[in-house]
Known about the structure:
The protein has helices at about 20-30, 40-45, 50, 70-80, 90-120, 130-150, 160-170, 185-195, 195-210; strands at about 5-10, 35-40, 60-65, 65-70. The protein is α+β, with helices and mostly antiparallel strands. Helix 5 (about 90-120) runs parallel beside helix 7 (about 160-170). The longest helix has about 30 residues, at about 90-120. The protein is globular. The mean pLDDT is about 95. Bound molecules: S-(P-nitrobenzyl)glutathione. S-(P-nitrobenzyl)glutathione binds near residues 18, 20, 42, 58 and 72.
Amino acid sequence: MTITITAFERSPDGGMGLARDTRVRWALEEVGQPYAVRLVSFAAMKEPEHLALHPFGQIPTYEEGDLSIFETGAIVFHIADKYPGLLPEAGDARARAITWMFAALNTVEPPILDLTTARIFEGDRPWRDERLPLVMDRIRARLDKLAVRLGDADWIDGAFSAGDLLMVSVLLRLRMSGMLDEYSTLAAYVARGEARPPYRRAFAAQLAINAPASN
Length: 215
Ligand code: GTB
């Protein structure tokens, strides 16, 4: 059955791989499933046709036969649940890997999203300079603990899993801020994720769409 995902017609990041379709592409590459991509403009995302797939008018979405789902975490979980390669087969190890998926999205990512909001979307607001250090401290509080838990391990809990895929994807959003460089083991963890051939393929596929045209 053909898998079709949606992605930005042109990502605002110009191909840095930060839009969330990269996470879904990466998961599909890890499990070796081919997929098609339907590109949508910002305007089209708010039209009824896309809203039927994604009630909040966003990307990514995922269609497979009669199934249509949205929310990156749910999509990555569906892929990991259905196809071998991203979650331990059963038992406690599987439950722990799923826990790390939620930890990435619910505990580590929110303050990182706040940083983008403070820097970019509220960059011209009078509270920006006061807010930024508070947000950065909230991020460091998470990274301190994450670095302790990771220690010198390659991955967060045994073999690479969907938990690592989401955690690395979340941490990648910090690269531009320089904050990742404060944590050498986390920076190495992210680099290990980026070095995986499935990530390289996912990154290249989105870059092919989003790279600024050269003259
Ligand atoms: N909770 C949802 C999920 O995890 O799937 C959030 C989905 C979401 O935020 N989608 C964004 C979107 O569609 C794209 S990924 N935005 C358009 C809109 O809301 O109208 C977020 C994103 C966008 C751009 C960059 N960038 O350019 O660096 C990075 C991340």
